[in-house]
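Run log // design_07
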């Protein structure tokens, strides 16, 4: 039996489970809000072209209106000024789109402190227990924030001082960008950076440092709670938008059960 035949039979027989990590995409999908004077993306919406009527008697279809960074989506280097000479979303290496992943669960700390920032020591403690971060793979950072994703206000968790959502410390972001072999960081929040990231140094450190190092981000993931810490194969399917800084993506995980 070939490797691919074996994989197909394992999926069909349930020995390998496919877990959908993607948030449903609709007009109610939470989106990032930047303060003035910065411009913001648009919410997702469908515009009907025809639906079994005089505009098209036997077919239904829509135009879609969305931003590149809406819902579960992929960030690529050209999204940030530090990576402006890097690749766009149509040029992402295929080995990044099909790659191993590990899941670091810090949901308890995020529940106690919505401004929790992942540290280098946190990651090192995890690797001491579970093994090294995957070479060319993904670090998926579980905070439990996907449980808030049905409500924009609860998801952004903002007050007069800004949004309060967990993220990564600047020191850890630099270390992940420069000293680890991962291809990217995946999170459950609206962006890869913490809600208070505008006040960090550098501002938005995950965007600045990881994208500047030619790495990637995945945001608004769901169902990380169902994954084991290791042994995950991640499948990421963005639209190959020429010149695009990112794209909504379907993200699936293959897990041996």
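design_07 sequence
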């Amino acid at each position: 039996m070939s490797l691919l035949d074996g994989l197909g039979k394992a999926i069909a027989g349930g020995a390998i489970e496919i877990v959908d990590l993607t948030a449903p995409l609709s007009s109610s999908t939470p989106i990032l809000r930047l303060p003035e004077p910065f411009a913001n993306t648009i919410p997702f919406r469908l515009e009907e072209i025809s639906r079994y009527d005089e505009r098209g008697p036997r077919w239904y279809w829509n135009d879609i209106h969305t931003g590149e960074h809406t819902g579960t989506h992929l960030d690529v280097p050209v999204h940030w000024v530090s990576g402006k000479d890097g690749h766009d979303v149509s040029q992402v290496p295929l080995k990044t789109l099909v790659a191993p992943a590990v899941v670091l669960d810090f949901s308890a700390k995020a529940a106690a402190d919505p401004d929790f920032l992942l540290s280098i020591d946190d990651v090192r403690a995890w690797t001491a227990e579970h093994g090294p971060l995957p070479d060319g793979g993904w670090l998926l950072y579980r905070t439990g924030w996907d449980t808030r994703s049905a409500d924009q206000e609860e998801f952004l968790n903002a007050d007069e001082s800004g949004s309060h959502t967990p993220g990564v410390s600047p020191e850890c972001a630099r270390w992940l960008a420069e000293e680890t072999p991962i291809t990217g960081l995946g999170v459950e929040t609206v962006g890869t950076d913490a809600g208070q990231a505008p006040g960090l140094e550098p501002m938005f450190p995950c965007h600045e440092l990881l994208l500047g190092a030619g790495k990637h981000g995945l945001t608004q993931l769901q169902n990380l709670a169902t994954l084991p810490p290791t042994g995950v194969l991640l499948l990421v399917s963005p639209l190959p938008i020429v010149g695009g800084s990112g794209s909504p993506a379907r993200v699936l995980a293959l897990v041996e059960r």
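The radius of gyration is 19 Å.
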